[in-house]
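Hypothesis: this fold can be encoded by more than one sequence.
Test: take the C-alpha cells below, design a sequence, compare later.
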C-alpha cells in the first residue's frame, strides 16, 4: 500500500487577496486559475497569470505567491499535485518526451478545450471517494500527457531528501504528536542518524514539523470555511493562540486575515 496518493488536489476559494511568502513547491504542480490573478515572484523575476490560464510549477522551486481576488468576488484556483513516483511512471510510459527540455521554474498555457476537459476529469476523479487509484492515476497521467504535447514536461526527480521524507510521512497525520524516535523508527534508522542527516540538510525534526503544519494550515484556510480553531487542531496545535502566533511569524499575517467578516 502506498503511503501517499500518486496525485492530489488542492482547491483555493477566498475573497481576500493575499501574499504567501517563501512557498516551497513539494510536488510538481499544475493549477487552473478560475477567477482572479496570480503572480509568482522569484528572486529575479515575476510571472503573472490570468483567469482561464493553467500554471505549471516545478517541484523543488520556491516562490512568493500572490493571489489577487477580483473586485467583489473570490479568488479561485484548482491545483493538481503529482508525486515524483507518478512523474517517473509518466516518463516510463511515454519515453518519447525524455529528450524534451524539462520545466525548470514555472510556465503557463491556455486551458484549451482538450486540456480543460482532461483537467476537469482529473479533479472529479480525485474528489470521488469511490474512484479507484487506477482511475485517478489514469486521469492524472492524461493531464501530464496533454501538457507534454504542448511542450511542458516535468523532470524525473532525484532521490528524496530526508526533510522531504519526514514531511511526507508527517503529512499523513499532521495532528499527531510526532517525536524524533518515532520518525527514526519509521525510517529504520537510529534517532541520532536521522538527526544528523537532517542537520546536513540544514534542517531538523521540529523545523520539518512546523513547516509542514503551516503549509497545511494555509491550504485549509484558503480552501474551506472551517473555524480557525478546528484548523489549528488539524495541524497539531491545541492552543489557538500558539497556532495564530506561529502562523503570523511564518506568513506575516494572522489566520483571521483569510476569514473576512
Amino acid at each position: 500500500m502506498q503511503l501517499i496518493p500518486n496525485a492530489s488536489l488542492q482547491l483555493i476559494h477566498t475573497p481576500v487577496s493575499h501574499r504567501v511568502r517563501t512557498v516551497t513547491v513539494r510536488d510538481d504542480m499544475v493549477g487552473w486559475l478560475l477567477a482572479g490573478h496570480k503572480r509568482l515572484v522569484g528572486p529575479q523575476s515575476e510571472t503573472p497569470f490570468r483567469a482561464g490560464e493553467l500554471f505549471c510549477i516545478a517541484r523543488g522551486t520556491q516562490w512568493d505567491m500572490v493571489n489577487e481576488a477580483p473586485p467583489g468576488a473570490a479568488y479561485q484556483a484548482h491545483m493538481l499535485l503529482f508525486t515524483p513516483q507518478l512523474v517517473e511512471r509518466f516518463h516510463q510510459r511515454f519515453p518519447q518526451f525524455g529528450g524534451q527540455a524539462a520545466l525548470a521554474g514555472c510556465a503557463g498555457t491556455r486551458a484549451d478545450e482538450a486540456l480543460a476537459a482532461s483537467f476537469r476529469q482529473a479533479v472529479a476523479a480525485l474528489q470521488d471517494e469511490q474512484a479507484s487509484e487506477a482511475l485517478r492515476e489514469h486521469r492524472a497521467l492524461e493531464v501530464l500527457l496533454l501538457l507534454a504535447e504542448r511542450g511542458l514536461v516535468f523532470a524525473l526527480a532525484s532521490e528524496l531528501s530526508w526533510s522531504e521524507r519526514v514531511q511526507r510521512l508527517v503529512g499523513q497525520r499532521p495532528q499527531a504528536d510526532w517525536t524524533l524516535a518515532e520518525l527514526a523508527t519509521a525510517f529504520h534508522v537510529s534517532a541520532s542518524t536521522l538527526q544528523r542527516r537532517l542537520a546536513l540538510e540544514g534542517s531538523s525534526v521540529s523545523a520539518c514539523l512546523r513547516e509542514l503544519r503551516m503549509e497545511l494550515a494555509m491550504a485549509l484556510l484558503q480552501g474551506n470555511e472551517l473555524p480557525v480553531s478546528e484548523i489549528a487542531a488539524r495541524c497539531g496545535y491545541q492552543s489557538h493562540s500558539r497556532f495564530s502566533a506561529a502562523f503570523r511569524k511564518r506568513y506575516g499575517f494572522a489566520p483571521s486575515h483569510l476569514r473576512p467578516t
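The mean pLDDT is 92. The first strand starts at residue 7 and ends at 14.
Hypothesis status: open.
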